[in-house]
Amino acid sequence: MKILYIHQYFKTPQQAGGTRSYEFAKYLVDKGHDVIMIAGSKDIKKRVEYKVIDNIKVVYIKNEYSNYMSYKKRMLSFLSFAFWSSIEALKIKKLDLVFATSTPLTVAIPALIVYFFKGIPFAFEVRDLWPEGPIRVGAIRNPLMIRLLLWFERFVYKRARKIVALSPGMVNGIIRAGIEPQKVVMIPNSSDTHRFPMNVQYNGDLLSKYELDKNSFIITYMGAMGLANGLEVVVETCKLLQYELKDKNILVLLVGDGRERPRLEKLKNKYGLNNLLFIDPIPKARIPELLSLSDVGLLVLIPAFDLNSPNKFFDYLAAGKPIISGADGWTQDIIRRNNIGIAVKAGDAKALALAMLEMSRMNKEKLKEMGYRSRKVAEEQYDRMKLAKKFEETLCSALIK
Question: Which domains does the chain have, with CATH numbers?
Fold first, then answer.
């Protein structure tokens, strides 16, 4: 099968960011499929560059994008990518299927162009309920724009042969939009257990690079630092730990970047916090090493994004780490059901601080058992290779009318 895979934010393990598309595309190639990836990049010199990465044919389109951009500039970036990727998509001959993964929703435009001009079927992946998320946080307020985006969302869903959703809540949201349930398949984000070998001793250079005290109880958050991530509660939590609860053992690492990071760093400095450290994004390939230094993984989100399927959650599982969650939604159900951490209400700094304190004072064996259960959940329920097989089967079924 010859598949055109469209993902504006495609990343490899040598880059910082989620690698779901890379892992799934590589699986498809290893199974004998021909995969062409159209992706955006701000680093290339020409308008379009062609590369082959692990037998995945990648078409990079020059596209400026940053988490620091305003929503207006982001929209221009989305439309630019949609335009140029449509042109590149139309050049590809003898396609069997197009697969477009959001966000943004505009990645569906090249899939629709190929569908209408060449009659090639497409499948669509929903990573966030977009535009619902931006609407809920007030990023999109114009009534006409809201109506247009909601119409376009339904237009895309109706014409896709199959829709892949990343969480139960997303499945329900798509069905509420009037889509027949048999058309929607849930394939959540996955745990790359093959990239997280257990009981491996690393050389410790990250420990020295970031001047981490190995005797501290390290709680690590990895990922974007935007409005949706709700990280201000973590700064407030660290303030409570340092001044009210008088803790001197916990160190919280915030690893990543985004529009909110400068404001969060200013808040940290204003409070004079020495239990909070900001670290720049690191390549996906080095995450196992960083998490090996950590005692616990941290997950936070604002309530408007509680349907999400965060990559970091599945990395914590793969690394065999207990999890503290301040993110409402289905991932908290997983934590409670499998007894792999502590889940508190989103935005509650006091509850989050007490959870961190409880975890830091927990018996080491009990903590280790939680970690073992996390890894077991990763292997049995969310292993990347198992879900990649389901992904392949879904794409094959999209060829059948």
Answer: 2-190+383-397 (3.40.50.2000), 194-381 (3.40.50.2000)
